[in-house]
């Protein structure tokens, strides 16, 4: 078994949709980035890539490549899982945290879990997504951006039996 950690953050900006976990969230600003800037899925992909010692999403999906401009990050997550499977790994579980002062995310968390589970090819019971604030501290508390952390467990397909 191998453990991975991922982190991503993006600045909030006007004129963009706010997408987290593949879910469009009603908000007056969205996240700035080359792709759809879904920092939750980026953190999950980085955790998976890190666990498999395959680098990070910047290495595989660089912002210098126009193919990834505006791309749906769910596509990037599915490609990440494909790379892991190619290396003989399967996803055991994922636990992720969205750090945002606003908007409140509780009503969207289950849909995010479902999207991540579907894209990783695992049961939704193996995915957890939660949200927290930083009590108005730091860049997330000042409403400048949103950050996400993710951890995961992966194992060799032929050797690991996850419950």
UniProtKB/TrEMBL annotation:
Its EC number is 4.6.1.12. The record marks 34, 133 as: Transition state stabilizer. One of its GO terms (biological process) is isopentenyl diphosphate biosynthetic process, methylerythritol 4-phosphate pathway. One of its GO terms (molecular function) is metal ion binding. It comes from the Bacteria. The keyword Manganese does not apply. Residues 1-154 form the 2-C-methyl-D-erythritol 2,4-cyclodiphosphate synthase domain. It is an enzyme of class 4 (lyase). This is 2-C-methyl-D-erythritol 2,4-cyclodiphosphate synthase.
């Amino acid at each position: 078994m191998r453990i991975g950690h991922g982190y991503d953050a993006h600045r909030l900006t006007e004129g963009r949709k706010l997408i987290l976990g593949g879910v469009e969230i009603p908000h007056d600003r969205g996240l700035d980035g080359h792709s759809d800037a879904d920092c939750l899925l980026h953190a999950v992909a980085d955790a998976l890539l890190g666990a498999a010692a395959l680098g990070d999403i910047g290495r595989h999906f660089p912002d210098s490549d126009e193919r990834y401009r505006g791309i749906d990050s769910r596509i990037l997550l599915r490609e990440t899982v494909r790379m892991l499977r190619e290396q003989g790994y399967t996803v055991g579980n994922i636990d992720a945290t969205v750090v945002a002062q606003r908007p409140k995310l509780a009503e969207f968390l289950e849909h995010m879990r479902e999207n991540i589970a579907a894209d990783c090819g695992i049961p939704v019971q193996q995915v957890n997504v939660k949200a927290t604030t930083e009590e108005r501290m730091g860049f997330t508390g000042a409403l400048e951006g949103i950050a996400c952390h993710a951890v995961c467990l992966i194992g060799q397909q032929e050797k690991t039996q996850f419950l």
